[in-house]
Amino acid sequence: HSISVNGGTDVMQYYMSANYLDEGGLLKYGDDGRQRYSFTGKINADLAKWLKVGYSVRFNRIDYSSPSFASAGENKENVFYFDVCRYWPVIPVVDPNGFYTAESKIYQLTEGGRYNTQNDVVAQQLQFLIEPIKNWKTTIELNYRSNYNFSHTDYQTVYAYDVNKNPYAIANTTSGVTEYAYKSNFFNPNIFTEYSLELENGHNMKAMVGFQSELFKQRDITAKQNNIMSGIPTLNTTTDNARASGGYQEWATAGFFGRINYDYKGRYLVEANLRYDGSSRFLRDQRWNWFPSFSLGWNVAREAFFE
Questions:
Q1: What is the pTM for the complete model shown?
Q2: What is the pLDDT of residue 176?
Q3: Which residues neighbour 307 within 8 Å (Cβ) at sequence distance 6 or greater?
Q4: What residues pair up with 61 in beta bridges, in sequence order?
Q5: What percentage of residues in the chain have a pLDDT greater than 70?
Q6: Strand bridging mode 33-48 / 12-24
Q7: What is the pLDDT of residues 137-153, one digit of tens each?
Q8: For residue 71, how many other CB atoms are within 10 A of its CB?
C-alpha cells in the first residue's frame, strides 16, 4: 500500500510518501513473514535569488519473524532448508498415533522457538546551493544516516513421541535466549565551489575546489543465557550460563580536491585533477597522499570535415 502527496509554488516545492508492504512466508508449519514500513519527505525552497535550500528524510523499517529452526543463527545456518534438500519422499509426516514424526521437523518449526528482528534506517540530507554572482556556484551537502537493529532468538526444547506415546527431546535439549542490538551512525559532508568562464572565440574554462569527509561509528552488544523458565523467552526468565559480548568500531576519511577544465568550442578538451586524501584505515605516518590525474579529449564530431 502506498500514498503520496506533492505540491508547492514557484519558490517552494514539497513531496511526501508512505509505503507499507506485508509479505507472507513460505512455511506451511511455523509462521514466517516480513513487514516493511517506509516514509520519504522532501522540501526545496528559494530563500533568495542567490540561495536555495533543500531537505530530505527517508525512514525505513523492516520487521521479520520466523521459527528459529528455519533461521540462520548460532549453530543453525539454515539447517532446516539443508535438511529439506536431503529428504527422501518416503519420510512420513505423522506416525500411526497421529503425532508428527521427528524427521518431518514440524515440531521443531512450530515449538522450537522464534527468531524476530527489527531494522530501522533513517537517512537525512540538508543541501544549500549558493550563487552570489553569475557562474560561481557553491554547494554544501550534509548527509547523516542512522541504522538500528534489534534481534531476538529463543530456542525451546522440542519433544516428539515414541510408539508408546512417551515424549522424548529431539532438539534444543538446553533451551536459551539470545538478544542482539546494533547501532551505527554515518556522517558525510560535501562542500565544493566552482566557477565557469566563457571567453571569446569559443574558449571556455571551469575551476572547482572542494572538501569531502566521512565518519562512521558503530556499536553492538550480544547477550545469551540458557534454561528458559516457564516457557517465557527473555533474559530475565533464564537461569544460568550468562554470556555477553560487544564492542565499538569507527573509521573516517577526508579529502581535498580540485579540478580545472578547458575546452575549445566543445572540440578539444583538457582536464586536470588533484586530490589530497586521508584515511584512518592506514598508519598515522602513511595516512595522507596526493592523487593527481590528467586527461585529454577530442570530440571529432565537432570537426567540420566530420559533417
A1: 0.84
A2: 93
A3: none
A4: 37, 120
A5: 97
A6: antiparallel
A7: 999 999 999 999 999 99
A8: 22
